[in-house]
Amino acid sequence: MYYKKIFDLLPDYIFIHDKDGYIKKMNNTSLKYFKGCENIYTIIKEERIINKIYNHSSDLPLKAGETSLILPNRDKIVINITSRNFETSFSKHYKLTIFKDITHVKDVEKQFCIAQKQGAIGAMAAGFAHDFKNILNNIKLYLRLIMQSGDLSQVSKYAGIIENMIQDSNNFIRHVLNVTRDTSANYEEVMIAELIREDLNIIERILPKNINIDFIDMAKNAIVRLIRSRFTQVIFNLVLNSVEAIGQNSGDILISIERTNINEKPFVKLSISDNGPGIPANIIDRIFEMFFTTKPNGSGLGLSMVKMAINDFGGYISVESQEGSSTTFKIFLPEVVYGESV
Ligand SMILES: Nc1ncnc2c1ncn2[C@@H]1O[C@H](COP(=O)(O)OP(=O)(O)O)[C@@H](O)[C@H]1O
Ligand SMILES: [Mg+2]
């Protein structure tokens, strides 16, 4: 009895079918979308995976692969398929095939690719930074010519050249900003703790062994309004900076959220601290600047993007650091409170 309940309650899509794919039973999760479906192979469609399941004959579980499905409600999900053989009392050869919905994991992986793309953009930007310097040097040169020239027609000619050069650099900055902003994404109201946990699930998988990361939620059920993908970039960038700061030493990163007020309005304060080397006082005011970096291969874009995202979400970011012992980034995001007039 209980087993049947558990079978039905599991969030995975579970099917019991024969070798030829004919479905004998499915759990409630599967029924919701695949009721009336007779053969599991018509759901999977991908021949490579079907062949694997069909040909699998050992007692060991089979990792059949990943594929995507369009559900009847038009949602597209990505699933990971496992299958194993088993016998029933009728001693028939049945297969238990399970689809695990990994849509979110795939989403986060995509975000990670975007973060990496930003790395590429950073490298690109380093190249452009060089061009930038040239432009500035040229502007300086023409300014000097203006200052030395008594001829008014020459002055306006040089001024025109300078104006064009400034326009060029403006276009470039706009270009960099546009590629790094995911304009297709939408605002959502989300439970911030859940989002952080989802990101941490991925981060923990790739975190170096010498670094420990913890999350404390002191803002139970707090909801904020933001663009999911950009928030993930914020977390990734800040954690990555901490990881890079800690380096080979062993270190801790602590993420925490709590409720607070700013001008009597409810905010969620998100803190990300590390016990790395800290930020020297003479550069701390510059770290949010575009292209400011102290790393040989840094892009100097991470924090400027973080700040841009947080400001777009209607929030604020600040930093505190003790040289030689710790760095804490504090982010304040407006809390969405339902049922209250603004
Ligand atoms: N957690 C941290 N600990 C120490 N220094 C940091 C930390 N986060 C950022 N910084 C400093 O801020 C600079 C700018 O960071 P960022 O904008 O992400 O660019 P990048 O990581 O490419 O250098 C870094 O080069 C580093 O000097
Ligand atoms: Mg960085």
UniProtKB/TrEMBL annotation:
Domain Histidine kinase intervals: 127-337
Annotated keywords: ATP-binding, Kinase, Nucleotide-binding, Phosphoprotein, Transferase, Two-component regulatory system
A GO molecular-function descriptor: ATP binding
Annotated signal peptide: none
Catalytic reaction annotation: ATP + protein L-histidine = ADP + protein N-phospho-L-histidine
Keyword Phosphoprotein: yes
PANTHER family assigned to the protein according to its UniProt record, in alphabetical order: PEROXIDE STRESS-ACTIVATED HISTIDINE KINASE MAK3, SENSOR HISTIDINE KINASE
Top-tier EC class: transferase
Protein name per the record: histidine kinase
